[in-house]
Fold this sequence. Notes:
The chain has helices at 18-32, 49-59, 74-84, 103-112, 130-146, 163-169, 179-185, 209-223, 226-254, 263-296, and strands spanning 5-11, 36-42, 63-68, 89-92, 117-125, 155-162, 190-197, 303-305. With 310 residues, the chain is of the alpha/beta class. Helix 9 runs antiparallel to helix 10. The two termini are 13 Å apart. The site of magnesium ion has 5 residues, from loops. Residues 10-12, 14, 43, 71, 73-74, 77, 94-96, 98, 205-207 line the site of uridine-5'-diphosphate.
Amino acid sequence: MKITYSIVAPIYNEIETLPLLYSRVKEVMDSSGEPWELILVDDGSTDGSTEKIRELAQADKTVRPVIFARNFGHQIAITAGWDYARGDAIVIIDADLQDPPETILELAKKWKEGYEVVYAVRGEREGESWFKLWTASLFYRLIYRITDVKIPVDTGDFRLMDRKVVDVLKKMNERHRFPRGMSAWVGFKQIGVTYKRSARHAGVTKYPFSKMLRLALNAITSFSYFPLQVATFFGFLSAGVSILAIPLVIILRLAGSHFFEGQTTTLISVLFLGGVQLISLGILGEYIGRLYDEAKGRPLYIVRDAPEDQ
Ligand code: UDP
Ligand code: MG
């Protein structure tokens, strides 16, 4: 059977939300009157979500489970969803119901108008701490400024993409992935639809600060050389300062000034330059580490159980 919509939800320990996710998606998608499938990608859950997903799939063939062998991360789970989706339009949605399934119909409307990527823009956000809101807002704006692609601000992974777009994305097998950046990078006809992001239905966020930081680093290194250029900038800056300072100090010393005597000045400049050099090395390391990961060419994810009808 030809499928119009593939709804992809990455699942990491979402047992409390799964039944409601399924019933809400079902209600909304049935009302569209077109064939759809729900791909639940289990990203190494340990709370029984895996069994729940299997149960749902047993009871309803529109649910297709992709079970990972361990936790590979949200971005990789989305990637697996792209790989297994069979629909003409592919929708990525968070499993915690922060992205209301009802919005899918609005996204689909724009798709029917001819847009190939319809991304959902977070207008309002409910039930999130000021720290999360502030860091998220900072993250979106930083990424927008320093990356080479214009990734829409206040936009997560919740979006609908045409089959054509997903077929292109499937060929991009970079390891450290930033799906919303990738989907901006490919071009096509894109448009945003504003929605109200709800509070998490149950459970806690799977994005602690450390994971958010890693995601931000992936976003930056995947789409920009800016950090490498900052190192060059500091190199030129400190070289420039010393070119000016050397003759100045010589002249002052010849003129009999005692202003630049003592170890403090030496120590400070050595510490400063040492710091800049170590940071630059660290930045280089980030890029080289990613190159190394790419060179190893390991599979992006390992599936324990794929949908039977694949
Ligand atoms: N998620 C995942 N693997 C992970 C972390 C999260 O598949 O390692 C899923 C999670 O189950 C949810 C989505 O990614 O469906 C977004 O995660 P979460 O809601 O915790 O992030 P937040 O909305 O707090 O940024
Ligand atoms: Mg969430």
